[in-house]
């Protein structure tokens, strides 16, 4: 009997250790960018990435008031003490690279948003979230890397200590005839339709 209890205890300990290891390897969420590199939010595995814009995040427009250029939006992460103040400082359409021969492919154009993120919480931010541009048809377009624009430099992010700010431009590649009506930021550590901000453009 004592041997059975010992075997059971060992199996339980192994199970707990395996679970802890799996949790510790799980990323907090894809960062906007590595240290000293242009910020590139991507749409791979993002919270709500599989939602239909007509029924998912896009449908939140009726429930969530859109901010406008210059208006701050507070984003609350799932972890206690994680709070960002996000501001859309400017929006340009089309966006143009400083490199004369660098442009979107035929049938596409770039639009860009100047974003500012300030850590107004009580703990540091090790990863920003993701952004999308929604067109009038409800299609969602992720950020793409473009380098420096004629309007300014790309958002560069490592981590934000309490009180620190990160700012720069993020760029979306969209169909030439698409009309962008809304931008969305979503924190990397939240569930769908929470911890995000929306701006009308």
Please provide a written account of the structure.
With 201 residues, the chain is mainly beta. It has a single domain (28-200), classed as Immunoglobulin-like (Sandwich). Helices cover 12% and strands 30% of the residues. The chain has an 8-stranded antiparallel sheet, with no helix packed on it. The longest helix has 24 residues, at 2-25. The termini are far apart. Mean pLDDT is 72; it is low at 1-62.
Largest sheet: 8 strands, antiparallel
What spatial form do the alpha-carbon principal axes imply? globular
User: How many β strands by DSSP?
Assistant: 8
In the CATH scheme, the class would be: Mainly Beta
Number of domains: 1
Question: So how many helices?
Answer: 1
Strand order of the largest sheet: 1-2-3-6-5-4-7-8
Mean pLDDT: 72
CATH level-two architecture: Sandwich
Strand proportion: 25-35%
Whole-angstrom Rg: 20 Å
Which terms summarize this structure?
201 residues; mainly beta; Immunoglobulin-like; 8-stranded antiparallel beta sheet; 30% strand; globular
């Amino acid at each position: 009997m004592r041997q059975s209890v010992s075997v059971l205890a060992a199996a339980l300990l192994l199970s707990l250790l395996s679970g802890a290891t799996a949790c510790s390897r799980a990323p907090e969420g894809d960062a906007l960018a590595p240290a000293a590199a242009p910020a590139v939010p991507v749409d791979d595995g993002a919270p709500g990435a599989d939602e239909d814009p007509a029924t998912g995040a896009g449908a939140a427009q009726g429930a969530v008031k859109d901010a406008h250029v210059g208006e701050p939006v507070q984003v609350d992460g799932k972890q206690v003490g994680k709070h960002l103040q996000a501001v859309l400082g400017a929006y340009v359409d089309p966006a143009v690279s400083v490199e004369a021969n660098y442009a979107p492919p035929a049938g596409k154009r770039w639009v860009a948003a100047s974003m500012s993120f300030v850590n107004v919480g009580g703990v540091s931010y090790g990863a920003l979230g993701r952004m999308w541009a929604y067109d009038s048809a409800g299609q969602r377009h992720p950020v793409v890397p473009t380098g420096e624009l004629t309007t300014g430099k790309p958002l560069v992010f490592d981590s934000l200590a309490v009180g620190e700010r990160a700012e720069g431009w993020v760029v979306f590649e969209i169909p030439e005839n698409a009309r962008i009506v809304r931008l969305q930021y979503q924190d990397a550590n939240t569930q769908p339709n929470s911890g995000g901000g929306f701006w009308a453009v």
